[in-house]
Write a structure and sequence with these properties.
heterodimer, A: 4-stranded antiparallel beta sheet, 11 strands, B: mainly beta
Chain lengths: 113, 112
């Protein structure tokens, strides 16, 4: 089955800790995205990548970092610099970055202890 | 804010009724898309309408686009309880920045 997976489903972060959210796709898509969703809100773009070994900041990149070493994988690290990390994080992919249909993973809910 | 608006914010209807959601955006666009999100889940793509199209259908879904008013609407006909979800519009702006910009969503409750 082709698709996009995220893990874990729930993640707990302690004060001052960095945590990494996993995103993997086997759709052979070039572009991948990380979004943050807060309650009752739309999606806000954190980072996106159009091709392996390249990525760009989105609208709310501060306190986050990413890597794109493989086409299939786009992990997101929430650093201790992100002071309000509690949110629902969604990973998506698309064939190209040009506003094409995006396919979403099931999401990771990050909670702060 | 680049984000447009969706209205209503919340909609509650009975099974069998039609549901209409509206989306307004602020820039010239290449296309506009509608997505559905069930509670606590990822988003699922429903339909894409390009800027040179005025109406598109997919099953019980009908989407219209009025570029002169910078608005779009999503109509779900003969609604079912399984249609209960949040619905988001997203658009690709023209120019060098071709990221999708997202609306704030409409929460639809279809009561059996």
């Amino acid at each position: 089955d082709g698709g996009i997976t995220q893990s874990p489903k729930y993640l707990f972060r302690k004060e001052g800790q960095n945590v990494t959210l996993s995103c993997e796709q086997n759709l052979n898509h070039d572009a991948m995205y990380w979004y943050r969703q807060d309650p009752g809100q739309g999606l806000r773009l954190i980072y996106y990548s159009q091709i392996v070994n390249d990525f760009q900041k989105g609208d709310i990149a501060e306190g986050y970092s990413v890597s794109r070493e493989k086409k299939e994988s786009f992990p997101l690290t929430v650093t201790s610099a992100q002071k309000n990390p509690t949110a629902f994080y969604l990973c998506a992919s698309s064939i190209a970055q040009r506003g094409e249909t995006q396919y979403f993973g099931p999401g990771t809910r990050l909670l702060v202890l | 804010s680049q984000q447009g608006e969706e209205d209503p914010q919340a909609l509650s209807i009975q099974e069998g009724e039609n549901a209409t959601m509206n989306c307004s955006y602020k820039t010239s666009i290449n296309n506009l898309q509608w997505y559905r999100q069930n509670s606590g889940r990822g988003l699922v793509h429903l339909i894409l309408i390009r800027s040179n199209e005025r109406e598109k259908h997919s099953g019980r879904l009908r989407v219209t686009l009025d570029t002169s008013k910078k608005s779009s609407s999503l109509l779900i006909t003969a609604s079912r309880a399984a249609d209960t979800a949040s619905y988001f519009c997203a658009w690709e702006g023209r120019g060098n920045n071709r990221k999708l910009i997202w609306g704030l969503g409409t929460s639809l409750a279809v009561n059996p």
